[in-house]
Each structure stands twice: as structure tokens, then as C-alpha cells.
Amino acid sequence: MKKTQTKVFADLVGSIIFIILGIWAWIQTSSFQEVSGSYVQASTFPLIMIVGMLIFSVILLVQSVIKLLAMKGDSLSSAEKCESINPVTNKGVRAAFIVVALCVAFVALFQTLGYVICSAVIAVVIMYLIGKRDYVQMIIVSILVPLGMWLIFYKVLTVNIPMGPLQFLRDLLDKF
Amino acid sequence: MDFGLLLESYAAVWTNPEVLVMTLLGALGGVLLGAIPGMTATMGVALLIPFSFGMDLIPSIGLLLGIYCGGMYGGSISAILIHAPGTPAAAATLLDGYPMCKKGQAGKALSVAMFSSFCGGVIGALVMTFLSPLIADMAMKFGPGEMFMLAVFGLSVIVSISGKSISKGLISAFLGLALCTVGLDPTNGVPRFITYKQTGLLDGFQFIPTLIGMFAVAEVIAGVERILNGEEKQESSHEKIKNVLPDFATIKKIWPNILSGGLIGTLIGAIPGAGGDIAVFVSYGANKSASKHPELWGTGIPNGVASTESANNGCSGGAMIPLLSLGVPGDSVTAILLGAFIMKGITPGPMMYVNEIPTVYKVFAALMLANLAMLIVGCCGVRFFAKIVSVEKKMLYPIILVVSLLGAYSINKNVFDVAVCVGFGIFGWLMNKYEFPLSPILLALILGPMCEKNFVRFMNIQRGNFFAITKSPIAMTFAIVAVAVIIFSIFNQMKINKVQQLDPTQE
After folding, report:
1. Residues 6+ apart with CB under 8 A from B368
2. How many Å from the N-terminal Cα to the C-terminal Cα in chain B?
3. Secondary structure (3-state) at B197
4. CA B192, CA A159: separation in Å to the nearest integer?
5. Which residues contact B9 (CB under 8 A, 6 or more apart)?
6. What CA–CA distance (Å, rounded) separates A50 from B211?
7. Distance between CA B172 and CA B467 in Å, rounded?
8. How far apart are CA B62 and CA B85, in angstroms?
9. Calpha distance A135→A148 (Å, rounded)
10. Per-residue pLDDT averaged across A119-148, rounded?
């Protein structure tokens, strides 16, 4: 196993990401408006937290570097392997990325298509993606669950949820 | 205390059919609402308060307290079964509840949660009955300095919930605390990390969509990945639930956690502005630190569930103390209850104990009844709730996702919250994948705003002299205990890591 495939290397990458994030956030705080007469400025609290994050990120970085340098022969072969995030080589990660894309599409189309249609589509696609092949069950569940949730939220909890083209269902329900 | 009048009030409340029915209905509604991610006990009480308009005071208070107590327990159901806390007060329950479910002990976890919720609620109600004026006096001594130190004390638990790597836990915690500062500065209204044009973030990241995203959505993404990689196994549906209540051996094991959790919950609940979400983490941390086997906490043990569930229901009694004795609500639910009292022509406060003592005693009795109603509803539902894990994972994950996204939307009826939920879902999935713990972020998101707000207030009152905090005995007590907890947790974690290095199977 290569050193770059170990959990320790993942920690090293993680610590670098948090250091970059911390430095960016620190720079951002310098642009916060100062309020005269206030003993604590808007930037004080975030700055303390960012410094804390940076300190522990540097500690993690140092720990990872020391561990990586010490890894040789047996200790390298027995080192814990880090999780893959490569969608090309790992079908699980590929499916996870598809779920993420579906969630983003859900957010983008929520107002236009409404909750029930968006949810039914996302549910059917995910079920198919993870190997469910009982189509009747898939369609029934993915339509009835969002419809049932909408009914509960609309009638019992009086929360109005976008329905898109299915708006007529609400009008129908209101008539009864 | 007039014990004769107290007993008379209990008898009047417990034999009134209208009160019994309303409290039971309230508890049922509370449990069901609490179990839906995104629906809090506060929302439940707010939604159902119009139904109480036409009722007498005690049945209406019974209905609302039933929802309150039921909602507190209900939140644990989804935390245990689907890794999505129904309410913020159930956030810490998933630390041990979900691993128990993964081990095929969903029914046991639910019954422990229910029993602990009931006991915690009873402890809260008893403390409220006998020690109200005393605790109310203590709670009123909490100024910004004391509140700030209470938040710091709560944050000291972070080390003990960090897992294997303390550095990673602390990175998560500081990141969470920094995330709390996104939006308008609470004191001066200065935008931080955003511009005024980004209206969706002016109030920062909303807590509930963030919570749902980090836990439920992240779990769905990870679950799909595991199924495709052949690492996911269907949770046992063979767990036989013989008794809906925990067996005697389990009760013997968890009673110290229930007792301490109930008391911690009651005391924290009595402090205005501090609620169940804070109490559960303080109770979890305190109980873990005191445990002989801290290495088992977080792996799915009933003690973890008991310590958090007794604390959040203990809060219900605690939050009623300042409401009744001072007219100051302890949390958002009691703020709505204050409105209910005023609508009925009763003004809670010190004079209530002089002029309306029979009503006060009836409220005590109604709270006790609400806890009993929650237990009855819970007992009837445990077998049914436990069946949820038997649903095929290939169907359960999409259902969790669509219900969670709806929960995120329903808070403010805002699509931006759904986007935040999805964003934090992706973030939570990646953090989990690379073993950066999420619980410290969650704790930071709960305590961060309280910490900053009170820090700024304190500094402005003391004209920038932070060391003036040493003059407050309460604040200094919290500071000393916080330092002790941190040292003890670091020591414990080192011990756990050492044991796991020698015997990796204990991980």
C-alpha cells in the first residue's frame, strides 16, 4: 500500500484543507465593520474560534507528518487504508455522488415541480440505483409516502408546501 | 407546603375525565410530532394551542404539557431508528441510540429511552413541586457571566464526545463555533462572512435544517454508498420485544444515569434560555466522565440513552419552575404556556403562589399526568416503532431522505433551508468518511450562539474587564468543573486509546 492511501495521509490532507479554510476565514474577519464604543467587535468571537481551529489543524498536520515519516515496511502494510472518494473506481462513491446530484436537483426544482413530484422522482431513482427492482412497490411507495406527508403537513400541521402542477389537489382538498 | 391541598389537587386532576383524555391526546400528538425530523415540541405546542382555546385551564394545560412531554420523547424515536433526531433535545440520544439500533437492539433502545424519559420527567415534576421557589431564586442569579460559563461548561463535554482523535474533535468543535458566527452579529448587526444581499443567511445557518442535513441526509448518502459496496446489512428484524419496559437488569444498570440526568435536566431547564438541547450534552458528558467504562460510551449502550433522555424530559419540569414562580419562561415551550395562562386570566409569577395556589398544585399534577400519558403512549408504540428498522433499507433510505427534506423546509417554509440541509448533508458525509466527528459540531452549533451573546453582554457590562467574572461564585464553579471535565476526559480518552491499541477488537 502506498503512503497516500493511508488514513494518516487523509488526515494530513484534511488538516491542510482546514488550515486553508482558517486562513481564508481570518482574512474575511479583517473586513468586518468595527463599531465604536463596543468592547467586543463583530470579529472578536469568530477570530478566537478560527485561531482555535488553526491551532488544532496544525497539531493534526504535525501528528500526521510524524506518523507518515515513521511509516516503513511492516508498519506501512499494516496501516489503516483511507476511504476512497474516487467515483471512477468505486461504485459506492459514484452512487453517493448521484444521490448528491439528485438532492441538488430536488432543491432547484422544488418550487416549480412541487414536493410530491420531486420526492416521487428522487425516491424511485434512488431505489433503482441501489438495486430495488420491484417496480410496483417502488412506484406505490414513492408516490404514497410524499403524498401522505403532504397531507399531514397541509391538513394537520397547516404547513403549506409547494405542489407545482399538482396544485389542483390542494384546491380539491379545500373544497371538502 | 399544604400537603392536604396538594393531594386534593392531584385527585381533582387525575379523576377528571376531560383532563385525562386531553393529556393523553396531547402526549400522542407530541410523540408523533416529535418523531418527525424538523417538528419540535415548541412547534407542536404552538400548532395545537388553538384547540385549547375553548377548554378550561387545567384540561388545556394538560393538553399542552402532554405535547411537551410527548415531543421530548418522540424526538428520540427517529434519532434511534434513522439517525435523525426529531427534536434538537434528542440530538445526543443518537450517540448511543443509533449504534444500539445498528446492533439489532432498536426495541431495547426505544424502551430505555421511554422509561428514562418518564423517570426524568417525574424527577423534574417532583423537584418542581417541592423546590420551585428555591430553584427559581438560584436561576435568577444567572447573569451574562454565569450563562457564558454555563455554555463553556457545556462545551467542555466536546473532548469526551470527540472519539479517537481529540485534535479532530476540537477542529470540528471550533469549526462549528465559527459556523455559528455566520450571519449578522447578534449585538451590533454587522454582517459576518456574508453581505446584506444574502438574505437567507442573515440569521446564520438555521439549526434544524443543519441538524437534519448533517445526520439524516449524510446517513442516506453513506447508506447508499454502503449498499453499492456490499457493506450494508439489513438490521435485525428478529429482536423480540417481550416487555415494552426495560428488564430489571437493565434498570439496575441505568438508574444512576437516569437520576443524574433527570436532576441535571431539571436544573438546566430552570435557567431561562437554557433548554433540553444543552442539558442532554451536559448530562451525557457528566455521566460518561463518571462511568467506569467510558470506552463503551458511543458504541451503543443503554446508559448513554438513559442519561440523555432523562435529561431532556427533566427539563420539562425545570422549565416550569421560573414560569410559575417568577413568570419568566424557562424555554420556548413554556413561553407559549405563559400565553395560555394569560389567556385564561392567570398571570404566573410570585403572586400566583399566594393567590392561585390550588391552580399551581393542579399544574404540578397535570405535569405528572403528562409524563404518565407519555409512558402509556410510548408503551403502546414501542413494538410498532421498532418495526421501522425491519423495513427494507432499499426503501427506507429514499423515504428518510424525502421526509427529512420536507422537515427542513417546514421550519421557515423556505427552499434555502432545504439547500442548507443538502449542503450540510454532503459536508456531514465527507466529515464522517474521514473520521472527523460530527457531535462536537452539533454541540458547538447549540452552545455557540449562547456563548457569544453572553460573552459580548458580559464584556460590555464590565467595560471590557473579563476577569470580573472571578467575582461570581456560580461562574467560577462552572469554570472549575469545566476544567476538571476537560482534564478527566483527556485522561479517559488516552486510557481508551491505549486499551484499543493493545486490543483493537475493543474498538
Report:
1. B10, B122, B125
2. 53
3. coil
4. 31
5. B358, B361, B362, B364, B365
6. 22
7. 28
8. 25
9. 20
10. 93
3-state DSSP assignment of residue A88: coil
Measure in Å the smallest separation between the Cα of B97 and chain A Cα atoms: 25
* Helix/strand/coil for B184: strand
pLDDT at B507: 46
Name the pTM for this structure. Answer: 0.82
- Residue identified by cell 400522542 is B28
Q: Are B225 and B425 in contact (CB under 8 A)?
A: no
Helix (H) or strand (E) run with residue B191 in it: strand B191-192
pLDDT computed for residue A38 by the predictor: 82
C-alpha B153/C-alpha B145 separation (Å) is: 12
Do B413 and A119 lie within an 8 Å CB cutoff? no
Q: C-alpha cell of A115?
A: 414536493
**Residue in A11, A38, A99 nearest the CB of B188:** A38
| Contact assignment for B394 to A127 by CB distance below 8 Å | yes
Residues of chain B positioned with their CB less than 8 A from the CB of A66: none
Q: Which residues pair with B191 in a beta bridge?
A: B184
The three cell numbers locating residue B250: 437493565
Question: What's the CA gap between B258 and B287, in Å, rounded?
Answer: 10
Q: Are B43 and B33 in contact (CB under 8 A)?
A: yes
Distance CA B69, CA B292 (A): 31
Q: What is the pLDDT of residue B233?
A: 67
Cβ of A45 within 8 Å of Cβ of B456? The answer is yes
Mutate one of A7, A47, A56, A100 to test the B interface: name it (highest B CB count within 10 A).
Answer: A56
> Tell me: the pLDDT tens digits for B123-177?
998 888 888 777 777 777 888 998 899 888 888 878 877 777 889 999 999 999 9
Q: Which residues of B touch A42 (CB under 8 A)?
A: 185, 187-188, 190, 192
Task: Residue count of chain A, please give it.
Answer: 176
Note the pLDDT of residue B504.
Answer: 55
With CB atoms and an 8 Å threshold, state whether B410 touches A45. Answer: no
CB within 8 Å of chain A, chain B residues 421-460:
422, 425-426, 429-430, 433-436, 452, 455-456, 459-460
CA B444 to chain centre: 14
DSSP string, B345-368: T---STTHHHH-HHHHHHHHHHHH
- What is d(CA B81, CA B415) in angstroms, rounded to the nearest whole number? 26
Mutation target among A40, A100, A111 for the B interface, most CBs of B within 10 A:
A40
Which amino acid is present at A9? F
Q: Pick the residue of A16, A49, A64 with the most B CBs within 10 A to test the interface with B by mutation.
A: A49
**DSSP string across B232-274:** --PPPS----S-SSPPHHHHHHHHHHHHHHHHHHHHHHTSTT-
Alpha helices per DSSP H over A130-166: 135-151
Residue where the block lists cell 460559563: B149
| CB-based contact, B497 to chain A, within 8 Å | no
| B475: helix, strand or coil | helix
CA B146-B149-B154 angle, 5° bins: 125
Condensed to tens digits (0 to 9), the pLDDT of residues A21-60 reads 999 999 999 999 888 888 889 999 999 999 999 999 999 9
Tell me how long chain B is.
507
Which stretches in chain B have pLDDT values below 70? 1, 38, 47, 233-242, 273, 330, 500-507
Is residue A123 within 8 Å of A145, Cβ to Cβ?
yes
Instruction: With CA atoms as reference, report the closest residue to B399 among B28, B99, B81, B41.
Output: B81
Q: What separation in angstroms does the CA of B33 have from each of B59, B241, B334, B453? A: 20, 24, 18, 31
B187 → chain A, closest CA residue:
A42
Burial class (CB in 10 A: 0-12, 13-18, 19+), B300: buried
